[in-house]
Design brief:
By secondary structure, this protein is an alpha+beta fold. The protein has five helices and six strands, in the order βββαβαααβαβ. Helix 3 packs antiparallel against helix 4.
């Protein structure tokens, strides 16, 4: 008898937080006037390919679009005047390290702080998962450590409103449109997670590729 046994890879189920961070430096001046339509000025510094292409329009940038969605769900149409957000991103873009998931979590945390919303982390997880449908990335970024997750299905009507920003639709931006209407609140308990204990003896190594191979002619011969 021949037996082939393949382990479950845990894709989109398990996630781990690494020692690379997306950091927001936030300053609110409480100015009575603002030159920005949404009372927010954004700046960015980061590493790797694509960093010089980050959109600094707060109505198009993923972090601030997410924050605006959360604020508008709580009847706050704009950021407090004047809000300045400087983003320092040490997570390489487009390398499979969950940079978009980290941006979504940062946006929800930004809204929670500047809007004084006092949301629990579990409720913040619901908002994150309305936008980023990878609970492994989101839960690891929000809770830290080593997590196992699963995601409940959403009804089509839960996602059809264009006020909801989408993190994975290109070209950006997608969703997060200001229609003047209050966006729909996310259902409760969209996703669930377990935070596993971590042994100090275990070390995690992430290999970040930074290369490309261009093949102009077919390869022939033995290989």
């Amino acid at each position: 008898m021949l037996i082939i046994k393949v382990p479950c890879p845990g894709f989109d189920v398990t996630g781990i937080a690494l020692s690379r961070f997306l950091t927001l430096h936030i300053r609110v001046t409480q100015s009575p006037t603002s030159t920005s339509p949404v009372n927010c000025t954004l700046s960015y510094e980061g590493e790797g390919d694509g960093s010089d292409e980050i959109d600094l329009d707060p109505e198009r940038n993923l972090i601030t679009r997410v924050a605006l969605y959360v604020l508008r769900c709580h009847d706050q149409h704009h950021f407090p005047a004047d809000t300045f957000v400087h983003v320092r991103n040490d997570i390489p873009l487009g390398r499979g390290l969950g940079s978009s998931g980290a941006a979504v979590v940062a946006g929800c945390l930004l809204a929670n702080k500047v809007g004084g919303l006092d949301l629990t982390k579990d409720r913040i997880l619901d908002f994150c998962l309305m936008i980023e449908r990878h609970p492994d990335n989101v839960a690891a970024a929000l809770y830290g450590g080593f997590v196992g997750t699963y995601l409940n299905d959403l009804k089509p009507e839960d996602m059809e409103r264009k006020e909801i920003p989408l993190s994975e639709v290109l070209p950006a931006p997608a969703g997060g449109i200001d229609t003047g209407l209050k966006p729909p609140d996310p259902p409760e308990n969209i996703g669930h997670y377990i935070r596993y204990p971590w042994s100090e003896e275990i070390k995690a190594v992430a290999i970040i590729p930074d290369f490309g191979i261009l093949i102009l002619t077919p390869i022939s011969g033995p290989y």
